[in-house]
Amino acid sequence: MKNRLSILILALLMALPAAAQKEFGGVARFDATVIDMGKVNIRDGAVSCSFLVTNIGEEPINIFAVTSSCSCTTAKWTREDIAPGASGTIDVTYTNDEGPYPFDKTLAVYLSGVERPVILHVKGVSYKGKRAKN
User: Fold this and answer.
1) Domain encompassing residue 121
2) Which of 13, 14, 37, 63 could disulfide-pair with 124, CB 3.0 to 4.6 Å?
3) pTM given for the model
4) 3-class secondary structure for the chain?
5) Please, is 94 exposed, middle or buried when counting C-beta atoms within 10 Å of its C-beta (0-12, 13-18, 19+)?
6) Cβ(88)–Cβ(82) under 8 Å?
């Protein structure tokens, strides 16, 4: 029993750095890898957020592509090279028109100098309610 508990604790400790990781390949740092939009009213329409990516390497980097897990989520990103010390953005829009439910959309970001795509999440809970007054 002690052995199983030790293995479980070790596995949890090893998973923590991966969950909290915001630096990738020694070349890029993201301000966040998960953005929680909270509760969003379907009647208010599309919602947007941005991820900031900073070049922490010594060479320029490029965001080659950003792909979404769903056509309801689109991204626009910095197309030019990002110089060392400079930052670029990935602007994400969720259409918010698929019905009231929790959502967790993933985006795969392909960067020069990073072997695997960086996975970002946009999540929240869509609900149906009265439109907010302006």
Assistant:
1) 24-127
2) 37
3) 0.80
4) CHHHHHHHHHHHHHHHHHHHCCEECCCEEECCCEEEEEEEEHHHCCEEEEEEEEECCCCCECEEEEEECCCCEEEEECCCCECCCCEEEEEEEECCCCCCCEEEEEEEEEECCCCCCEEEEEEEEEECCCCCCC
5) buried
6) yes
Give the list of residues 6+ apart from residue 47 with CB closer than 8 angstroms, or none.
37, 40, 93, 94, 96, 124
Give 13's contacts (C-beta < 8 A, 6+ positions apart).
none
CB of 84 closer than 8 Å to CB of 113: no
CATH, residue 95: 2.60.40.10
Position of tokens 């946009």? 122
Q: Look up residue 28 and give its two tokens.
A: 């890029």
For position 3, what pLDDT does the model report? 54
Residue 34 lies in a domain: yes
Q: 12: pLDDT confidence band, cut at 50, 70 and 90?
A: very low
pLDDT for residue 4 = 54
Structure tokens at 80: 């030019």
For residue 113, being part of any structural domain is answered with: yes
